[in-house]
Amino acid sequence: MHGRPDPLDPLSRERNHLAASRSALRAMREDAEALDIRDVTANWVNAAVLQSQIDERIKSLADLSHTPLFFGRLDYLHAPGADQAEGAEGEQFYIGRRHVHDADGDPMVIDWRAPVSQPFYRASKKAPMDIALRRRFGYTGGDLTAYEDEHLSDADEAERTSKLLQQEIERPRVGPMRDIVATIQPEQDEIVRSGLGGSVCVQGGPGTGKTAVGLHRVAYLLYAHRERLARTGTLVIGPNKSFLHYIEQVLPALGELEVKQATVDDLVAHVEVRGTDDAAAAVVKGDARMAAVLRKALRSHVTMPVESVVVVRGSRRWRVPAYELEEIVGELLARDIRYGAARDALPQRIAHAVLVQMERAGEAPDDRVQDAVARNSAVKAAVKAVWPPVDPAKLVLRLLSDPEFLAVHAEGILDEDEQKLILWSKPVRGVKAAKWSAADAVLIDEANDLVARTHSLGHVVLDEAQDLSPMQYRAVGRRCTTGSATVLGDLAQGTTPWATRSWEQALAHLGKGDAVVEELTAGFRVPREVIAYASRLLPSIAPGLAEVKSVRESAGSLVVRQVADLDAASLEACVESLRHEGSIGLIAADARVPALAKALEAAGMTYLSPGEETTPDTRLTLVPASLAKGLEYDYVVLDEPAAVVDGEPDERTGLRRLYVALTRAVSGLTVVHSAGLPEQLAP
C-alpha cells in the first residue's frame, strides 16, 4: 500500500483494492474446498467432524454480491500496538465484514471486530485514537461508487455528519433485515464490544438499533471468545417466527453461521399447545409466585420414612432404622438441590449408612459394594416410597385440575380468586388430552427444572424482552445460568397484559440482577416527524421514559387523513407509497386484516405476510398490528388507529400497540382513519 505515487484517481484505486480483495477471498475459499483430509483422520468419526468444520469454513467464505467486502478504511498515524496488529507507521487498514488475506498471508481486509478496527466506530475529533484519516465507502448494488474522508488529526477541518452514513441508514429496504456494521455509532459500539462475563440490558426506543446491536454483539463475542462459545453455545430469542425470519440473515452476512434462533414458546415446547388463556388467567400463571407453588407441590411428594430398611447380603442382615433414614431425607431436603438429583443421591446415602455398619463389624467394603447395596431391592423400594419419581407435566396437570391440591400448595401464595382463575373448568383425562396453553408450557418448564437442571448456554440474546412474563424470564434465565445475557427491549412497546414495568424487576426474574442497563435514545431509523408524532403517546404509556431523538437530517413524511371509505382509502395510500422505492407495510388491527386482504385481492394487488421476503415485484406486506413489533418498512400505511387500540384488553396496552405500529416507518407514514383518533394524538 506504499511506494511510488499511484497514477490512478483515489476511487479507481479503491475499486482495484476491492477487486483484488474479492480475488483473495475466492482463493481462500478455493483453498478450503481443495483440502484433502484422507491422510489426517484416524477414523470416519474424526473425518466427519473435520469435514463438517471445513464445510462451515467454505460457507463462511462466501462472497455475497450485494454485500460489500469492506466499507471503510483507517489510516493510522503510527503503528498500532502489538496486541492489535503488526504494521508499518502510517499503515492503512480496510475494515470489512470478515478477514481477507492475500497469498502471502498479509491482510487485505480486517474484520470489523478486531481491536485495530475499533477506531472506525469510536474515533472523533476530540479523541482521534491515533487515526489520521477515516474513509467511508458508498456502494450501489455491490459496486463501489463513492467515498468520504474525515481528517481526524486536522484541527482546521470542521466536524460534520457523514452523508454516506445518512444514505446507508436511509437506503430503501427490500428483503430481510440488513446488518448495520457500516453504520454502528460510538454508543452502540460500546455495547457491542462489552465483555462476555457481564450481562447487558439495552433500553432502546424505536429506530435506535437495539436489535441490530444485540446481533452484532453476538458476532463480536463469537469472534473474541470463539472456542469458549463453540463449547457452550449461543442463542437468539425473538418474539415470533416472523421476527426470527426477518433477522435470520444478519449473522450469516457477518460470517457467523452457528447461532441458533428460537422463540420462548420453542424453548418450553414440552407439550403441544392447543389452548389459550384469558388475560387474567395468563397474568396469574405468568406470575413469579407460581414458581413457589410448583416447588411446594413437588416437594409434597416426599414423605418421611416410618419403617426401617433391611438389606440382606449373604447370611448377614443390615438394618437402617427409620430415624436414621429420616435424618438422611431431612438433610437432602435442607440442601435444596434438584428433586431428581436428591432422589438419585438417596439410595447412595442409604447404602453409605449400611457400609458404616459393615466397617464397624470388621468388614472392608469398597465402592462396588456401596453401588450394589444402592441397587438392592429393599433400598429401591424405600426410595420409591419416600421420594417417588414425579412427571413435571402431570404435576402441573394436577395443580390446574384439582382444586384441593392447588389450595393446599397455593395457600399463603395465591388468594382464592387467583386460584379460581387458573383452574380448568372441566376435568382432563391426561397429559396428552389436555388443551395446554402457552403459559401452561412455561409452568411445565419450571417444574422440569425443579426436577432436573436445565442445560445452560454461554450467551443468550433476548429481544423484545419487555413482553415477557416473570415466569418466561425465569425460563430464559435457566438457559444462561452459567453464561451471560444481552436483553433488548423498550418498556413503551410492552403489549402484553403482563408486560414488565421496570428492567430492574425483569432482570431479577432473569437471574441477572447485576446486569448493566444502557439506554439508547438516538434514533437512526424512524424519521423526525414520525417519531415526534408517535411520542405524543409516551406520557400515557411509559411516563418518565426518554423520547427518542431522530438524528436523521431528512424529516421524513407524515400524512394523517380522515376518510369516509376506510378500505378504499387505505388501498389508495398503498398505491401512492408503491410509487416510491422500497418496502411498504400496511398495518392494521388484527380484526381489520381479513377485510383489507379481501379488498387487496379484489383490486388485484399482490401482498405478503409478515416475515415473507419482499421482492422487487412484491413490496407490499399486510401486517396485523400484533405482529408488527421489530419489523420495519420504508413506507407504512396505518389503517384506523382507534381499532388498533380497541383490539387490546385495556387502553394502556392498546396505546402501546399503536405506538409500535406508528414507529415502523423508515421514510414515510400515512395514517388513514374514519373514526376519531385517540385523544393522545391530538396536536
TrEMBL record:
Residues 183-536 form the UvrD-like helicase ATP-binding domain. The keyword Signal does not apply. ATP binds at residues 204-211. This is HelD family protein. The keyword Lipoprotein does not apply. InterPro entries: DNA_helicase_UvrD/REP, P-loop_NTPase, UvrD-like_ATP-bd, UvrD-like_helicase_C. Keywords: ATP-binding, Helicase, Hydrolase, Nucleotide-binding.
